[in-house]
Protein backbone atom coordinates (compact mmCIF):
# COMPACT_ATOMS: atom_id res chain seq x y z
CA UNK A 1 0.00 0.00 0.00
CA UNK A 2 1.78 3.05 -1.23
CA UNK A 3 -0.22 5.15 -3.64
CA UNK A 4 -3.73 6.30 -2.81
CA UNK A 5 -4.48 7.19 -6.41
CA UNK A 6 -3.86 4.95 -9.42
CA UNK A 7 -0.09 5.24 -10.18
CA UNK A 8 -0.81 5.66 -13.89
CA UNK A 9 -2.62 8.95 -13.23
CA UNK A 10 0.11 10.03 -10.79
CA UNK A 11 2.78 9.35 -13.44
CA UNK A 12 0.75 11.39 -15.92
CA UNK A 13 0.54 14.34 -13.52
CA UNK A 14 4.26 14.03 -12.77
CA UNK A 15 4.92 14.11 -16.52
CA UNK A 16 2.96 17.36 -16.80
CA UNK A 17 4.68 18.90 -13.79
CA UNK A 18 6.89 21.76 -14.76
CA UNK A 19 9.13 22.21 -11.71
CA UNK A 20 12.30 24.03 -12.66
CA UNK A 21 13.58 25.16 -9.28
CA UNK A 22 16.83 23.32 -8.75
CA UNK A 23 16.82 23.52 -4.95
CA UNK A 24 13.29 22.06 -4.81
CA UNK A 25 14.34 19.15 -7.01
CA UNK A 26 17.56 18.67 -5.03
CA UNK A 27 15.62 18.53 -1.75
CA UNK A 28 13.16 16.01 -3.18
CA UNK A 29 16.12 13.85 -4.27
CA UNK A 30 17.79 14.18 -0.85
CA UNK A 31 14.56 13.27 0.96
CA UNK A 32 14.07 10.21 -1.26
CA UNK A 33 17.65 9.01 -0.88
CA UNK A 34 17.70 9.55 2.90
CA UNK A 35 14.12 8.40 3.47
CA UNK A 36 13.03 11.70 5.00
CA UNK A 37 9.24 11.95 4.71
CA UNK A 38 8.30 15.24 3.04
CA UNK A 39 5.03 16.52 1.62
CA UNK A 40 4.16 14.91 -1.71
CA UNK A 41 4.81 17.42 -4.57
CA UNK A 42 1.17 17.41 -5.70
CA UNK A 43 -0.09 18.04 -2.14
CA UNK A 44 2.55 20.78 -1.92
CA UNK A 45 1.00 22.43 -4.99
CA UNK A 46 -2.35 22.48 -3.19
CA UNK A 47 -0.70 23.94 -0.08
CA UNK A 48 0.87 26.71 -2.14
CA UNK A 49 -2.36 27.49 -3.99
CA UNK A 50 -4.18 27.85 -0.67
CA UNK A 51 -1.44 30.04 0.78
CA UNK A 52 -1.36 32.21 -2.32
CA UNK A 53 -5.11 32.74 -2.30
CA UNK A 54 -5.39 33.20 1.47
CA UNK A 55 -2.41 35.60 1.65
CA UNK A 56 -1.65 34.80 5.32
CA UNK A 57 0.47 37.14 7.41
CA UNK A 58 1.51 34.45 9.87
CA UNK A 59 1.98 30.77 9.05
CA UNK A 60 2.80 28.02 11.54
CA UNK A 61 4.20 24.67 10.45
CA UNK A 62 4.47 21.74 12.85
CA UNK A 63 7.20 19.41 11.54
CA UNK A 64 9.97 21.08 9.51
CA UNK A 65 12.07 18.03 8.56
CA UNK A 66 14.64 19.37 6.05
CA UNK A 67 12.64 22.55 5.35
CA UNK A 68 11.13 21.44 2.02
CA UNK A 69 7.55 22.60 2.62
CA UNK A 70 8.74 25.59 4.72
CA UNK A 71 10.80 26.89 1.79
CA UNK A 72 8.06 26.29 -0.79
CA UNK A 73 5.49 28.04 1.41
CA UNK A 74 7.77 30.95 2.35
CA UNK A 75 8.52 31.61 -1.32
CA UNK A 76 4.86 32.43 -2.03
CA UNK A 77 4.32 34.52 1.11
CA UNK A 78 3.89 38.27 0.86
CA UNK A 79 6.76 40.57 1.75
CA UNK A 80 6.08 41.08 5.44
CA UNK A 81 4.59 37.66 6.17
CA UNK A 82 6.43 35.11 8.31
CA UNK A 83 6.54 31.35 8.65
CA UNK A 84 7.31 29.75 12.01
CA UNK A 85 8.17 26.07 11.86
CA UNK A 86 8.56 23.74 14.86
CA UNK A 87 11.04 20.86 14.74
CA UNK A 88 12.36 18.58 17.48
CA UNK A 89 15.08 16.63 15.60
CA UNK A 90 18.50 18.29 15.91
CA UNK A 91 19.72 16.67 12.69
CA UNK A 92 16.72 17.96 10.76
CA UNK A 93 17.04 21.45 12.29
CA UNK A 94 20.63 21.61 11.04
CA UNK A 95 19.73 20.43 7.53
CA UNK A 96 16.70 22.74 7.32
CA UNK A 97 18.80 25.71 8.48
CA UNK A 98 21.31 25.06 5.69
CA UNK A 99 18.65 24.71 3.00
CA UNK A 100 16.80 27.82 4.24
CA UNK A 101 20.03 29.81 4.04
CA UNK A 102 20.66 28.58 0.50
CA UNK A 103 17.10 29.58 -0.45
CA UNK A 104 17.81 33.04 1.01
CA UNK A 105 14.72 32.81 3.17
CA UNK A 106 16.26 33.13 6.63
CA UNK A 107 14.44 36.44 7.15
CA UNK A 108 11.04 34.84 6.47
CA UNK A 109 11.38 31.44 8.14
CA UNK A 110 11.99 31.01 11.85
CA UNK A 111 12.69 27.50 13.11
CA UNK A 112 11.35 27.01 16.63
CA UNK A 113 13.44 24.21 18.11
CA UNK A 114 11.80 21.65 20.39
CA UNK A 115 8.70 19.54 20.91
CA UNK A 116 5.56 21.13 19.50
CA UNK A 117 3.53 19.56 22.31
CA UNK A 118 5.39 21.79 24.76
CA UNK A 119 5.94 24.79 22.49
CA UNK A 120 2.43 25.30 21.10
CA UNK A 121 0.63 25.98 24.41
CA UNK A 122 3.18 28.73 25.05
CA UNK A 123 2.74 30.55 21.74
CA UNK A 124 0.89 33.82 22.29
CA UNK A 125 0.05 35.23 18.85
CA UNK A 126 -2.45 33.57 16.53
CA UNK A 127 -1.83 32.38 12.97
CA UNK A 128 -3.80 32.68 9.71
CA UNK A 129 -2.59 29.31 8.44
CA UNK A 130 -1.35 26.19 10.23
CA UNK A 131 0.24 23.18 8.51
CA UNK A 132 0.29 20.08 10.70
CA UNK A 133 2.82 17.46 9.57
CA UNK A 134 4.39 15.81 12.64
CA UNK A 135 4.37 12.38 14.33
CA UNK A 136 0.98 10.81 13.81
CA UNK A 137 0.59 9.62 17.42
CA UNK A 138 0.72 13.31 18.44
CA UNK A 139 -1.89 14.47 15.89
CA UNK A 140 -4.83 14.55 18.30
CA UNK A 141 -3.01 16.70 20.88
CA UNK A 142 -1.37 18.89 18.23
CA UNK A 143 -4.79 19.39 16.66
CA UNK A 144 -6.17 20.49 20.05
CA UNK A 145 -3.28 22.94 20.42
CA UNK A 146 -3.77 24.22 16.86
CA UNK A 147 -7.40 25.29 17.23
CA UNK A 148 -6.87 28.12 19.75
CA UNK A 149 -3.83 29.29 17.76
CA UNK A 150 -5.81 29.62 14.54
CA UNK A 151 -7.60 32.88 13.71
CA UNK A 152 -11.27 32.80 12.68
CA UNK A 153 -11.46 31.76 8.98
CA UNK A 154 -7.87 30.56 9.31
CA UNK A 155 -6.90 27.37 7.48
CA UNK A 156 -5.60 24.16 9.01
CA UNK A 157 -3.83 21.90 6.48
CA UNK A 158 -3.01 18.36 7.66
CA UNK A 159 -0.97 15.71 5.83
CA UNK A 160 -1.16 11.89 5.76
CA UNK A 161 -4.84 11.44 6.57
CA UNK A 162 -5.20 8.48 4.16
CA UNK A 163 -2.01 6.89 5.50
CA UNK A 164 -0.79 5.23 2.26
CA UNK A 165 -4.41 4.20 1.66
CA UNK A 166 -4.46 1.90 4.73
CA UNK A 167 -7.30 3.72 6.52
CA UNK A 168 -9.74 2.60 3.81
CA UNK A 169 -8.91 -1.13 3.87
CA UNK A 170 -10.33 -3.85 6.12
CA UNK A 171 -7.13 -5.91 6.05
CA UNK A 172 -3.92 -4.00 6.57
CA UNK A 173 -0.29 -5.07 7.08
CA UNK A 174 0.46 -5.73 10.79
CA UNK A 175 3.22 -3.10 10.85
CA UNK A 176 0.73 -0.41 9.76
CA UNK A 177 -2.03 -1.36 12.22
CA UNK A 178 -1.15 1.01 15.06
CA UNK A 179 -0.61 4.10 12.87
CA UNK A 180 -3.73 3.27 10.84
CA UNK A 181 -5.87 3.10 13.99
CA UNK A 182 -4.42 6.41 15.18
CA UNK A 183 -5.19 8.14 11.88
CA UNK A 184 -8.69 6.58 11.68
CA UNK A 185 -9.52 7.92 15.14
CA UNK A 186 -8.01 11.28 14.27
CA UNK A 187 -10.02 11.51 11.03
CA UNK A 188 -13.27 10.97 12.95
CA UNK A 189 -12.33 13.69 15.42
CA UNK A 190 -11.29 16.06 12.61
CA UNK A 191 -14.44 15.49 10.52
CA UNK A 192 -16.77 15.75 13.53
CA UNK A 193 -15.20 18.89 14.98
CA UNK A 194 -17.72 21.68 15.53
CA UNK A 195 -14.89 24.21 15.57
CA UNK A 196 -13.97 23.75 11.92
CA UNK A 197 -15.47 23.12 8.54
CA UNK A 198 -13.43 20.11 7.50
CA UNK A 199 -12.83 17.85 4.52
CA UNK A 200 -10.27 15.23 3.47
CA UNK A 201 -8.97 15.09 -0.11
CA UNK A 202 -7.23 12.17 -1.91
CA UNK A 203 -4.13 14.12 -2.86
CA UNK A 204 -0.60 12.99 -2.00
CA UNK A 205 -1.03 10.87 1.14
CA UNK A 206 -4.43 12.38 1.91
CA UNK A 207 -4.81 16.02 2.88
CA UNK A 208 -7.22 17.35 5.50
CA UNK A 209 -8.29 20.96 5.21
CA UNK A 210 -10.20 22.73 7.96
CA UNK A 211 -11.49 26.29 8.10
CA UNK A 212 -11.88 27.70 11.61
CA UNK A 213 -15.47 28.73 12.30
C1 LIG B 1 6.73 14.46 7.83
S1 LIG B 1 8.10 15.31 8.46
C2 LIG B 1 7.79 16.98 8.03
C3 LIG B 1 7.94 17.24 6.56
C4 LIG B 1 7.89 18.70 6.16
N1 LIG B 1 6.68 19.35 6.63
C5 LIG B 1 7.95 18.79 4.65
O1 LIG B 1 6.94 18.47 4.00
O2 LIG B 1 8.98 19.18 4.11
C6 LIG B 1 7.77 15.33 10.18
C7 LIG B 1 8.79 16.08 11.02
O3 LIG B 1 8.15 16.45 12.24
C8 LIG B 1 9.05 16.33 13.31
N2 LIG B 1 8.22 16.14 14.50
C9 LIG B 1 7.41 15.08 14.76
N3 LIG B 1 6.75 15.27 15.91
C10 LIG B 1 7.14 16.47 16.39
C11 LIG B 1 6.82 17.23 17.55
N4 LIG B 1 5.95 16.77 18.45
N5 LIG B 1 7.42 18.43 17.72
C12 LIG B 1 8.31 18.91 16.80
N6 LIG B 1 8.66 18.24 15.68
C13 LIG B 1 8.08 17.04 15.48
C14 LIG B 1 9.93 15.13 12.92
O4 LIG B 1 11.16 15.18 13.59
C15 LIG B 1 10.02 15.28 11.42
O5 LIG B 1 11.18 16.01 11.06
**CATH class category label:** Alpha Beta
Q: Strand-residue fraction?
A: 15-25%
How many strands, which pairing sense, and closed or not: the largest β-sheet?
7 strands, mixed
Helix content: 40-55%
| Tally of helical segments | 8
**Average pLDDT for all residues:** 96
Series of secondary-structure elements, N-terminal to C-terminal:
HHHEHEHEHEHEHEE
Find the count of extended strands (DSSP E, 2+ residues): 7
Topology-level CATH name: Rossmann fold
End-to-end separation in angstroms reads 35 Å
Overall morphology: globular
How would you sum up this structure in a few lines?
With 213 residues, this protein is α/β, with parallel strands linked by helices. It has helices at 7-16, 22-33, 41-54, 68-75, 90-102, 116-119, 139-149, 177-192; strands at 58-62, 82-87, 109-113, 127-132, 150-158, 196-201, 207-212.
What does the model show?
With 213 residues, this protein is α/β, with parallel strands linked by helices. It has one domain: Vaccinia Virus protein VP39 (Rossmann fold). It has 8 helices and 7 strands; from the N terminus they run αααβαβαβαβαβαββ. Helix 4 links the parallel strand 1 and strand 2. It is globular and about 45 Å long. The model has no long low-confidence stretch (mean pLDDT 96). Bound molecules: S-adenosylmethionine. S-adenosylmethionine binds next to helix 4, strand 2 and helix 6.
Amino acid sequence: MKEIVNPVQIDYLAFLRNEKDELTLEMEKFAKEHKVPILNWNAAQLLLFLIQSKRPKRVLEIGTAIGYSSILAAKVLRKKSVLHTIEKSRDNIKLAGEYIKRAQLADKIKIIEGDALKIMPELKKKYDFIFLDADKQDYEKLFEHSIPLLKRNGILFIDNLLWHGCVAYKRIPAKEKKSTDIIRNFNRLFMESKLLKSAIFPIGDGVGIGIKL
